[in-house]
Amino acid sequence: MNDRFQELTVFVRAATTGSFSAAARELGLSQPSVSRIISELEDRLGVRLLLRSTRKVAPTDAGESFLQHAGQILADLERADELARNMDSLEGVLRVASPSILCHQLLIPQIGKFTARHPRLKMEFMTSDSLQNLVADRVDVAIRFGRLKDSGFVARQLASLARILVASPDYIAARGMPESPEALLTHDIIVGPLTPQIWPWAFTRQDESFHARIEPRFMFDSADGAIAAATAGLGIAPRGDTVLRGRTEFRPAAAGAA
Questions:
Q1: Which residue in 48, 62, 141, 172 has the most C-beta neighbors within 10 A?
Q2: What pLDDT does 169 receive?
Q3: Of 209, 161, 216, 223, whose CA–CA distance to 181 is shortest?
Q4: Domain regions of the chain by residue span
Q5: What's the average model confidence in pLDDT over 200-217?
Q6: What is the pTM of this model?
Q7: Does this chain's domain 91-142 share its CATH topology with 163-254?
Q8: Are 247 and 147 in contact (CB under 8 A)?
Q9: Which CATH number fits domain 3-85: 1.10.10.10, 1.20.1250.20, 2.40.50.140, 3.40.50.80?
Q10: Closest by CA position to 223, among listed 201, 189, 190
């Protein structure tokens, strides 16, 4: 133990407990060692810090002032040690905004690993399929589909998410399987909040590109609502697939239960 640090520690414990023997037990020292350290400290400072009696010790006026400063120094050192130990650990509240389907399917399964590395961190999730005002809602991190519009925010692409078209077996049995993008114009289209309602959809098949201008029949403000409608046989809906090229892939043979 550093001499100066030891002096402060021994003095604070002796002054706080009112006993050299109690300070010695707490610090794993002998009582004579505690007495010697205090005496050397007083000699170095040229002032009496503790009044001794046969029953207890008590700080002098100078000792009271020194005790306040010494206690603060030790507390600051302890805090510095704690900060250094947790330098790579986050703490506080992290507010995360994301679409509900992304949060449920991708984020939640990974949260346990993340929070295990940051035991002091609390997380608040804002799961909405509408775009929040990130400043007004005090959002720290937002995860979104699509391209970021011009703004002052910093963005980084995490992955490319392909989209496929799905429908229920009952719908396909009743309306037939669309064999081309153009055939979608005769079908009922379901869109959610993250899908353009009237827009040329781009498709790829065997590295060929196709476009079709889609006008939806059913529009939902949540991705879950759109998928539920497709499952109920109301039409054809786009949904996220595995991480692929990032464009809608037209796979008529793959249509089945949503």
A1: 172
A2: 93
A3: 209
A4: 3-85, 91-142, 163-254
A5: 77
A6: 0.48
A7: yes
A8: no
A9: 1.10.10.10
A10: 190
Q: Which of 14-18, 37-41, 57-61, 98-102 has the lowest mean pLDDT?
A: 98-102
Sorted by sequence, the CB contacts under 8 Å of residue 169 that are 6+ apart come out as 256, 257
CA-nearest of 20, 16, 67, 78 to 45 is 67
Q: Which CATH architecture has domain 91-142?
A: 3-Layer(aba) Sandwich (3.40)
Q: Decide if 60 contacts 50 (C-beta within 8 A).
A: yes
* In the predicted structure, residue 213 carries a pLDDT above the cut 60: yes
CB-CB contact of 138 with 95 (8 Å): yes
pLDDT, tens digit (0-9, with 9 covering 90-100), for 185-203: 899 999 877 665 556 777 7
Classify domain 163-254 at the CATH topology level.
D-Maltodextrin-Binding Protein; domain 2 (3.40.190)
Among 4, 45, 1, 37, which residue's Cα sits nearest to residue 20?
37
- Render pLDDT for 105-164 as a digit per residue (tens, 0 to 9): 778 888 888 888 888 888 888 887 666 677 777 888 888 776 666 566 777 777 776 778
CA 158-164-166 angle, 5° bins:
135
